[in-house]
Amino acid sequence: MTILARLELWKEQGAISTEQQAHLASLSRGEPFSLSLELNLLLYAGVLAFVAGLGWTISTWSQQLGDVLVLTILSIILTASFWYCFSRAPAWSAAETAAPTPIFDYVLYLGSLVWCVELAYLENRFHVLSGQWDLYLLATALLFFFLAYRFDNRFVLSLALSSLAGWFGLTISHWPSHQDAAYRLYALVYCLVVGTVGAILERLKLKSHFFTTYLNVTANVLFWAILSGVFNSHGYGLWLVALLAACAASLVWGLKRRQFAFVAYAAVYGYVGVSWMLIRNASDSTFILAYFVFTAIAMIAMLVQIARRFGRPE
Fold first, then answer.
1. CA 192 to CA 165: how far, in whole Å?
2. What is the pLDDT of the chain when averaged over all its residues?
3. Is the pTM of the predicted complex or chain greater than 0.85?
4. What is the rounded distance in angstroms from the CA atom of residue 57 to the CA atom of residue 264?
5. Which residues contact 167 (CB under 8 A, 6 or more apart)?
């Protein structure tokens, strides 16, 4: 029996879906397949690595290079990046807009990251705002929101949401009392604000495809906040209930919307929380090691099966 015949048989038996059969059949025939997602991730990682190297070079050799040269180089990269984007961007639209050139999104991402590097350098060297990093983060978040919506870029939107989260955290750190409970409350308020804003914008059809990004950020922050309560030495029972409820909601959403990321969130964060409850009082290192070996293997196998049946590329 040929490979194609076996694939057809497996499809009829329900072992693989029609999409999987078509994909595997094309591979067996030697047809070309798309590496778009992998290449995009590599290019974004390359931009991030370049900026990280630029930041390391500046921090290491700034004394030898001098402030004028460092700021000139950063300003040239920043100006060139934003000039390229504004000069080539199509007219703004509330709907999803394709990038006008193949390198457009990466240039925008580069400019956004260089903006962060230049702001950090200015504050560290000249103390423009006397160490008020929360103001920098707020201004950066507003800028990134504008750039994300103007140029339709979800990576820059993620930077905006991260900057906003940082602003929330630094604002709380200025309070007279900022214990763990305050940060946990801040995280829950942040999730409520971001999730609500994302839902409103999605309802208004204003870059509605950004809603998944809002939900991904909200889900991760929410799970981390709840896990911090589970890890507490007291009062963790209520947080465990909240964790299980959040995992159930994330699982239902992921399966209903065919978004595997939310299924993975439910599995991974739930596994961490429940495992901590089971081993928090354990003292036998052999038992702990055996537990994580067997349960981690089972978790990975379960995620693979769910991904095959329900997951789809984002």
1. 12
2. 85
3. no
4. 37
5. 134, 137, 138, 141
